[in-house]
Amino acid sequence: MSSIAVSHIEAAPEHVTPQAAGGPLTVKLMGPQDKARWDAFVAACPEATFFHRAGWQRVIEQSFKLNTWFYYAEQGGQIQGVLPLCEINSRLFGHALGAMQFCVYGGVAAISEPARAALDAAADALARQLKVGHLEYRNMVAAHPGDAAWHTKELYVTFRKAISADDEENLNAIPRKQRAMVRKGIKLGLVGEVDDNVDRMFDAYASSVHRLGTPVFPKKYFALLKEEFGDDCEVRVITQNGALVAAVLSFYWRDEVVPYYGGGMPLARDVAGNDFMYWNLMQAAAARGARLFDFGRSKLGTGAYDFKKNWGFTAQPLPYEYRLYESTELPDNNPLNPKYQLFIKMWKKMPLKLANIIGPHIVRNLG
User: Fold this and answer.
1) So which residues are the signal peptide here (predicted)?
2) 222 CB burial (10 A radius; 0-12, 13-18, 19+)
3) Among 260, 297, 267, which residue's Cα sits nearest to residue 204?
4) For the chain, how are helix, strand and coil distributed in percent, rounded to 5?
5) Is the peptide bond preceding residue 100 cis, with omega within 30 degrees of 0?
6) d(C-alpha 50, C-alpha 225), whole Å
7) Mind listing the pLDDT tens digit for each residue in 3-35?
8) Residue 318 pLDDT > 70, yes or no?
9) Location of each CATH 3.40.630.30 domain in the chain
10) Answer CATH for 3-153+320-331 from 2.60.40.10, 3.40.630.30, 3.20.20.140, 3.40.190.10
11) How far is Cα 336 from Cα 72, in angstroms, rounded to an integer?
């Protein structure tokens, strides 16, 4: 747990489960000396994702000044499971403990059921100690099916699809109408290149989310992602005759590529900038050895959902799970909620420079 978290609240007590072999199973908080073996476990654990990596603790704490607890279960000196947690406490958006805020996937990643149970117990104890409204897990597969203490809601899906090493095969796999948009971008002379900083990417992203009426993340956040994850965090920029069109920040994980934050300038709509951008990324990822393209999370009923379906990807429901504590109903902090529509309309009209100043103070509480 970070120094920020320690100053905010005392750590939850260590949980110990006796084991017949290999000694006791203990749950501890990750310290600086544990990061290398934490990441070694995550790299080998089938359930783990890029969003379980230890580096997220530094990124989130330094970007948003939020409290985090990175729990791991250990037996006989070997890590058996991990659970990163982050707390958000906002008058406007509620008080929550999440696994993991700002990440589309999360929850317990473990190689044994005792480790999973011990980490669940640690999260439950911390949620009660913090008096949060709810605890949220963001697993790809429901971790507590049939457990009355946990609730799910149909809101998010993810889009994941295998790709090959052959560009022509990948292009032909894109449905005809969407493929025509990719070819339009190619014909209009769009090109992709990799930046070693987030400057141009931030400009494209900030312009895009402002048009959607969504608060922007701080530029520092993207810079820290790039700094922390190095070559596993790629910034790809699309230009036309030197003019910025679009950009995407992607994560590489095992044999997957995950385009995570992207956006386009107003010009992108006229030149099929976003279509070309994802195709250009797919080409580069395939050449790098990626064999799965994770198009990422989208909300049901949104334009992003339709865009990804048009690429021939099949929606895979994300059974996020919620355990209620101080709250009596499930959270509904998403732009489809009617109570946020006036805010969204006002935000779209706000000058971009002002929105970029105010936005980070709001978005830190959304997670």
Assistant:
1) none
2) buried
3) 267
4) 40, 25, 35
5) yes
6) 12
7) 333 323 333 444 444 343 478 999 999 999 999
8) yes
9) 3-153+320-331, 157-317
10) 3.40.630.30
11) 36
